Amino acid sequence: MKKPLPDLRCARDFYSNDPRIAIMDVDMSDIDDWFRGAHGGIDVWWHAENVVFARKHYSDIMDHIELREYEENSTHMVPFLPPELERKIFEMAFDPEDPSENVQMMLVSKRVRIWIRPLVYRIMEQRTRRFPDFVRRPMCVDVEEICQFVQHLAIDRRYCLYTLDMVKLLIKRCPNLISLGYWSSEEGSIPWYCISTLHQLRRLSVNLARCTNVGAGFDSPAFSSITHLEFLSTKPGIPLGRLIAFTNITHFSISSMTNTDNAWFRTLGNLLSSWDSLRVFVVVELNERLKDYVKYFYAQDTRIAIVDDDMNDVSDWFRGARGERDLWWHAENMVLARKRGYFASDTYLERPMGADFPWVEYLTQEGLAWYRAQVVN
To answer: In this structure, what CATH number is given to the domain that contains residue 238?
Structure first.
């Protein structure tokens, strides 16, 4: 026997007259809810504020509320929000560092799974930690489907136990890659040709410590679409001068395997003086205090940002993949401050920029205003 809905016409008229109103079910306002609010959790006020926000910004929300008959004991819920707003809420709730919670969200409904699934696999890690784990759970994931979602891939052959052919196949299956971190710590070649087929690739980070075919990368179109290029653990003899042919590169970062000498910085200075398209030149330095020839190199061009080695790690790459503040963000601010003359003196040239760089000690009053308005906020 069907149970009729209560007459909600009066309540609906009252509800629709003012977007500041949020009518909530009585089971949302109890003692437990009060304590949730006291602990800083999500309480009835949080839900009400979101309803009011949605109503103010989506005037057609009431058009999506349907009064339907429902069968007794039915648990079917009719969505109250426009699909685009509902999707935005789930995307905001998505946490890339909480896979279990994301899996729970995908179980809400088919439409939510369609929205969340690309976010779950947007960043793929195949290193000491493998996500997804193609080796242990080969039957649990559809590789072809998942790889279409991947925009950021971090891989190390030594730890993921992949052969070079397996790495090439994985890269080919990810046509939508925007950034690639290839940090193989075992001796071998880098698949430059496969990288050159990624036409949407914009950021490339490679470890050259034990690479046996460095020169092949400069002979291929691997860097043609790249805007942000990072060389880790570079060795002497790399033909850096040939990079100036790749005019799309606007950000370049380089670090050395060992302490560097005057000749190394002369090489970098010659490279930079010929590289007109470059906007940010990052040098990763191991020493806490810069030597005189390093400071001389630093002072010659405002596009340079010398950073401490502690800012250039794997965690930083993942911060960038998640859209958070990374090495590039900090370097861009350093370059901007230098170009605009925000530093009160040249004392900042004495040490590389680290995570604890004391901006307020070095900036002018105008620089402090910029720092507080742009950087801190």
So the answer is: 3.80.10
